[in-house]
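PROTEIN DATA CARD
Card holder: Ketoreductase (KR) domain-containing protein
Chain length: 256
Origin: Hypholoma sublateritium
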Amino acid sequence: MSPSTIYLVTGSNRGLGLGFVSQILAAHDNAFVYAGAREPEKATGLKSLAAKYPGRMAIVKCVSADVEGISDLAKYIEKGHGRVDTVIANAGLGIMKGSVSEVSVAALEDHFRVNVIGTIVLFQSLYSLLKKSHAPRFIPISTAAAAFHSGVIELPFGSAAYGTTKVALNWATRKIHFENDWLVSFPMNPGPVDTDMLRNNVSSDTSGTFENMLSVYPILPSGEMVAESLLKVIDNSTRAKEGGEFIDVDGTKLAW
Ligand SMILES: NC(=O)c1ccc[n+]([C@@H]2O[C@H](COP(=O)([O-])OP(=O)(O)OC[C@H]3O[C@@H](n4cnc5c(N)ncnc54)[C@H](OP(=O)(O)O)[C@@H]3O)[C@@H](O)[C@H]2O)c1
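Structure generated from the sequence above:
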């Protein structure tokens, strides 16, 4: 790492995003984190971290696909540090409900706005700040459920909006890799994480398939645990090794 590494993590109010902020601050004395949240004033988990690590983070407003708001955020980061080194595009919407025959247009639109447009707007807005970094990384958090080989596509519970939009996110990220030869960019699969997203999906799946699928895991890892693993991969990633690939939580390559 360079003498100071500047991170931006979106969707860090809770779940995996909060785990990322906590792990970055714990692992790197020299890191500064911009922790994106929709409602910074209500971000109690982030406020506790800010108290524990004074001067090492800023809780910033970051609503997916809010072009004006993210542009203001970029100006704020520019003023604070003049660049950003690692952007973790973690904010996501994941309601695993609605087969293709049933999914509502509203659900498709909501998922597309957050998972795809949100990530692209983030990249566009942070582009010039990433270009000023000596080691720029843009890392969207995807899911193995977006991989055609994963088996999730064959399961009876529907996930049309989530699956379709994470596939699109993977496409956009691989395209970002090919369009920008100065950047390290690749989508990552965190695997199952014990967060609100997963818990809500398990409890609303009346078929029990989801619960069965997860029963092979002795414990479901917390956001902190998964963030620690993902961060090791992200911090050591290079364009030659991981760039443009679909990378699993343990750093191995996944088939698309
Ligand atoms: N949990 C899993 O098992 C799992 C598996 C595979 C992939 N993932 C991916 O991992 C990432 C994090 O998921 P998670 O499990 O931590 O989910 P989560 O517990 O539902 O948290 C989602 C985060 O995203 C934020 N968010 C949602 N909509 C947003 C919007 N419109 N603008 C800005 N922020 C928004 C939420 O903000 P608020 O707190 O304000 O609502 C929250 O901080 C997602 O991209 C998800 O698809 C998770």
